[in-house]
Amino acid sequence: MSAQKIEAGSGLNWITGAVQLILKNPVVFLVMGLIVAAIGWVPVIGGLVMVVIGPALYGGIVHAAREQEAGRTTEIGQLFRAFGESGKTGAMIMLCLPSIAGAVLLFVLLMIVVGGALLGGGFAALTSGSAEALLGALGGGALILIPLALLIALVVYALQFFAIPRVMLDDAEPIAAMKQSFFDCLGNLGAYLVFVVLLMVVAVVLGLVLGILGFIGGLLVSTLLTPVIGCGLYLAWRQVYPESQVESETPTVQPAEAETTDE
Q1: Among positive and negative, which fits the CA dihedral 41, 43, 47, 49?
Q2: In this structure, how many other beta carbons lie within 10 angstroms of the beta carbon of residue 46?
Q3: How far apart are CA 9 and CA 191, in angstroms?
């Protein structure tokens, strides 16, 4: 399936359009966001669970966004739609593979940085109990690790970005969808980066404002951003793959019966 080339400003439009969609039915979308946020904030296992089923839950929000825009009924239960369609659950869960691979790679890089710091004198800093000394020992490695971590996160998200709506709405094969998603994000790098960076800025600002509420503040930030991300993915899919949108909205027309004439 061919993808459209779009302007960088489209990334902003996906966010503003997502907010407009949510405001048409705020209760449903915010409750969806709260459910996803609550799962992610469960101690110890919440993050792991979200890595595995997160794409499926975001797929449910993508589906709800399409239903909302089409004027059809949107319900909270649509969040779990991927788990109710035959053959959809496994396909959506496969989209967690980039996150797992990225986490493993980050762990390996962290061990390399920490190991190098210890060999370079960081062990003495560690045993000294001085935080400043330890940060100084890790400093060079941290400067390398941070941009690498951001790059890995961008690559992981690029593999999932268009794949989530394509697998959910187009029944695309997961591996092929992830490959195409990555290259289509590269082809529309400006819009992709605008979308991601703006959401990161909003998350930081909301975190600072609501941080005084502690745990509740963090939960609110996740609750607000989750439906924006899900609806934004839907709008990105709709714009970049207009052929899919036409096919999904075109009703099946039954062929007319051939007329016969008596000779």
Answers
A1: negative
A2: 14
A3: 6
DSSP string, 215-240: HHHHHHHHHHHHHHHHHHHHHHHHHH
Q: How far is CA 174 from CA 130, 162, 192, 240, in A?
A: 48, 11, 20, 18
What is the DSSP code string of 153-175? HHHHHHHHHTHHHHHHHH---HH
Q: What is the pTM of this model?
A: 0.84
Give CA–CA dist 46/263, Å, rounded.
75
CA 220 to CA 222: how far, in whole Å? 5
Give the start-to-end residue ranges of the domains of the chain.
10-241
- Per residue in 225-253, pLDDT (tens digit) is 999 999 999 999 999 998 765 545 544 33
Which residues 6+ apart lie within 8 Å of 228 measured at CB? 15, 18, 19, 22, 199
